[in-house]
Amino acid sequence: MDLMRASQGAPAILACRDVVKTYSLGAERVAALRGITLDIGRGEFVSVMGPSGSGKSTFMNLAGCLDTPTSGEVVLDGERVSDMSRDDLADIRNRKIGFVFQQFNLLGRTSAKDNVALPLLYSGMSKAERSERAEAALAEVGLDDRMNHYPSQLSGGQQQRVAIARALVNAPALVLADEPTGALDTQTGHEIMGLFHSLHQQGITVVVVTHEAEIAAFAEHTLRFRDGQLAEDEGNRRAKAVA
Question: pTM, whole model, 2 decimals?
Fold first, then answer.
């Protein structure tokens, strides 16, 4: 396990040090994470795998500033987020993290462009600037000819591209994708992973949670969680071949 790779190359966009997360289930204390230490470098493409209960979902919640650890330190893009308040976590999520989900989570009665612009509503930008940013993000994912289409008029792969554009519209420091190909057929899933690979080549940091080894292989590295610990951090041959 090469925990120093981020410091040897690009600086870490996400650093975890001795991170522990426990939950109370009645009188019982359950350890979801048991002292995780890892770095994810700026611009890396990382996949996260592990069986149910391994800790990968808890790790993603911490990385996405949806939760804080019981102990240990989490630093995102130079900001210590491990002891932030809920309001501060919400602010940093909006500024620095783009989320992509398995089920797309698009508003059905809203155009692709307006779906993409949603994260900008409270940014203080003018309507014209929000529209310009949304159009640029859709062009980035190859949907510049579908901006005014509604989700029902788009294929599953196109809907996921809209969701990716929405994640990119704030120019986030980190894109977190939770099973982004789970609702797609194999070919479309590979196309979406190819898009993530292209974004990574442009310097965007991408972390993908998946249970499929074939999907994980698109990334540079795979983090494997087991029993609340980081069991493996391995390089992926396919990613080198794609590159």
Answer: 0.89
